[in-house]
Design goal:
By secondary structure, this protein is mostly helical. 68% of the residues lie in helices and 2% in strands. The longest helix is centred in the C-terminal third of the chain and has 31 residues.
Length: 429
């Protein structure tokens, strides 16, 4: 493997420029390929839609901020405005910059490089107290491990995923454990469907089957937390977060309750760099702490309503800072990632787990994570666009499928190399 710009574009995603946490070094390394990557990105509908909605979201955020000057807003400095615009731009740029590197290096190696870069970057650049598995360190190691397992057989991939599931729950990292479980279930679902013929389009069968599988798995995991099967730590957390009778996600992510209170006060958003009034902040904090107690007040006053408002949800942040345009962008991202998951399930089973992990984690971070997880969302968008590019190549010419890249036919066609597995060949998706 050459240590060229493709190598550093992927490994560099885990390294942030010091003092500029919203700009990963991987994007800087890939600037020389921007035009080529941008053309690839906009070849497909998902890419064009992302670029368009991101542009109008920024316009919307600036207009809301401009016309909000007569409201009781606390003025923020230029830094907050600039960093917020950079944040939303990076959601698109990270996705754009991975396209050519992944096509040149190949999927399995790209997964290994991205995972290693995320893990090493976290270890070197993050404070030691943030070395917990539930943060970016665990995210990177899971991608690394599943990427290495993708070079083996399906049983190895599944067993690797199960090991990560058990370890994640033992460390109290529910999000990683749940998403790893989804990823393993997706690989198994792909294997079950592997002996059947299917249409090239995403049909109702794959949608309904995936929805039922994932819903049932989530219900089983929640029940296991409630009963203590996953350990006393997760059981105690479940009891704490459902004390008021609310669903666990509302108790665990009380920022959504605060965001809803702000939405009721001002549904048009607050504009780029905007701040709620003092009364609106107090009302939002009071609404959120109804679920889990007043000990969350310092967190809300210092982190959520700090110099730049961060509602611990990219979806809510897009509404808050960019108004209606932000909501459209958030919904666009959600649809692109959901379609990516459905397409991934139609790939070769050995590669499904790491790809679904990235895509599902992108959805989780879109809904429940702070601004600093933007790179996870951008990576997931890029993977979804790559899958759509593969479909486009299939539709253009069945005889020239990705010969200029390192993507094996077994991945594109859902045929499994006999050396890797024993699942019978089936028609490509």
């Amino acid at each position: 493997m050459k240590l060229d710009r493709n190598f550093f574009s992927l490994t560099g995603l885990g390294f942030k420029i010091p003092g500029m946490g919203f700009i990963p070094m991987g994007v800087v390394f890939g600037l020389s390929q921007f035009v080529q990557n941008f053309k690839l990105f906009t070849k497909v509908h998902a890419g064009r839609l992302m670029v368009t909605t991101a542009f109008w979201a920024i316009v919307s955020g600036l207009l809301v901020r401009l016309f909000a000057s007569d409201r009781e807003f606390d003025a923020l400095g230029l830094t907050a405005v600039v960093t917020t615009v950079i944040w939303v731009a990076m959601l698109v740029l990270v996705a754009i910059m991975i396209l050519t590197p992944v096509q040149r290096i190949g999927p399995e190696r790209s997964l290994v490089l991205v995972g290693a870069g995320m893990a090493i970057g976290t270890y070197l650049l993050v404070r030691p107290e943030k070395y917990e598995w539930k943060y970016a360190l665990g995210y990177g190691i899971v991608i690394l491990g599943l990427g290495l397992a993708a070079k083996r057989t399906l049983p190895v991939s599944v067993l690797t995923g199960i090991a990560f599931i058990l370890f994640s729950f033992s460390q109290g990292a529910r999000s990683i454990g749940i998403i790893a479980a989804f990823s393993v279930a997706a690989a198994v679902l792909a294997a079950i469907r592997g002996s059947r013929q299917r249409e090239k389009r995403i049909g109702p069968g794959i949608v309904i089957g995936s929805a039922l599988t994932f819903s049932g798995l989530l219900a089983a995991i929640i029940y296991a937390m409630k009963t203590g099967w996953l350990g006393e730590k997760l059981q105690a957390s479940y009891i704490e977060q459902t004390t008021g009778g609310q669903f666990i996600l509302l108790g665990g992510r009380t920022e959504w309750r605060a965001s809803w209170d702000l939405f009721l006060a001002n549904p048009w958003g607050y504009g780029i760099g905007g701040q709620p009034s003092g009364d609106e902040k107090r009302s939002a904090i009071a609404a959120a702490t109804e679920f889990r107690g007043s000990y969350f007040d310092p967190y809300f006053t210092k982190s959520v309503f700090g110099t730049r408002v961060d509602l611990h949800s990219a979806f809510c942040n897009l509404w808050f800072h960019f108004g209606i345009g932000g909501i459209l962008l958030a919904l666009t991202i959600l649809i692109i990632l959901a379609r990516g998951v459905l397409r991934a399930i139609q790939l070769s089973p050995v590669i499904v787990a790491p790809i679904v992990f990235i895509l599902a984690f992108g959805i989780w971070d879109l809904l429940f994570s702070p601004m600093r997880q933007y790179d996870h969302i951008g990576l997931a968008i890029g993977v979804s666009v790559l899958l759509e590019l593969l479909v486009r190549k299939e539709n253009d010419s069945a005889n020239t499928r990705s010969r200029e890249t390192n993507w094996p036919d077994s991945i594109i066609d859902n045929r499994v190399d006999p050396k890797l597995n024993t699942i019978p060949p089936i028609r490509h998706f």
